[in-house]
Here is the input.
Amino acid sequence: MKPLSIEQITQITGAQASGGQQVQITALCALENAREGGVCYVTSLDKPEQLSALNASALFVPQEAQGKELPFKGVLLYAKNPEWAFILLMKYVDAQYQKYTPGIHPTAVISAKATLGKDVSVGAYTVIEDGVTIGDNTVIFPQCYIGKDVQIGKNCLLYPQVVIREQCVLKDYVILQAGATIGSDGFGFTFHEGRHQKIPQIGNVVLGNDVEIQSNTCIDRSKIASTVIGDNTKIDNLVQIGHNVTVGMSSIFCSQVGVAGTTQIGNGVILAGQVGLAGHMKIGDQVRVAAQAGVMNSIPAGQTYLGSPAMPQRDALKQYAILRKLPEMYKEFQQFQKEAADLKKMSFWGRLKKLLGR
Here is the structure.
C-alpha cells in the first residue's frame, strides 16, 4: 500500500490521534503480526499491559480510552468503533488497488443488441448476448457469460467465470465472486409414463441492491415467477438456493447451506454452515439456525434453532445435556438388568426377603 500519514488516516476514519502527525503508515496488520509502520486495532482494553509489547506504529482503540495512560509506544487512534474505523481504512486501501483492466477487451464477444452504460469494463473472453443491459461503472472480469435479456445495474462487480442465465436481473452494487451461477434451471421433474420428465423452468432470478454471492454458489431460476434475493443479503461459497425461493433483506447464509424450493425466508436471518432447509416452509424474520441443523418445518420469527431435526434452542440444549449423561445412565440400566435377573432366579420368599432388605 502507498504510505498514509496519521492525518490522512484520521480524515478517512474519523478517528482522533494522540499525535505523531509525522508518522507514516505502510501496512494494515493483525495484532499477532504487528510490525513497524503498521496499524492495528483493539475493540477493548481488558488487558492494557499487553500493549507494551505491540510493535505497531499506530493502534485504533475505543474512544473512552482518551485521557488514560496506556503503555503503547506508537500513535493511539481513538474511535467510537475501532473495528469499523479499521474497516474504513481497509476499504480505502483496497479501492486504491485496481484489480482489473478498464475498458472492453478485444476478445470479448458482445452482441450489437446489448446496451452498455458509461465506463463499463469487460474482460477477455467474456460473452454478452442479445438484449443485455449493463449499468454504469459495472466491471465484468474475464470468462464470464451473460445470457440473453439479462439486466445488470450500476456499480456491479462480476469476477471470473460467473454465469448469469437469460432474463435474470441484478440490481445495483451486486458482487458475484468467481464461479457463481445465477439462473440455472430449477430442479423440477415429474414422474410420468415411467420416466422423470423435465418441467421447463421459465422464470428468472432477481438479486436486490448490494447483494453479494460468493464463489461456486448456485441460485436456481424459478419455475414460473422469480427466485428473489433481497437487498443487502450475503451468501457464502458453495450454497444452493432452489427454485421459487424468496429471501428477505440483510440475511446471511454461511458455507454449504442448502435451501430447497419454494421456501420463504425473512429479513435478517442467519443460517450457519451446512444448514439444510426442506422446501415449502416459512422462516421468519431474525431467525438464527446453528451449523449443520436440518430444518424440517417452518420457524417463527426471532427463534434460534439447533440440531437435526432442528428444534428450539432450549429444547435442543436439554437433549444435549441428557445425551452427555447417557453412558452413566446406561451403566445404571445394566446394573438394574443384572439385579432383575438375579431376582428372577430366586424363589418367591427369597425375592421377598431381598426386597425387604433382610
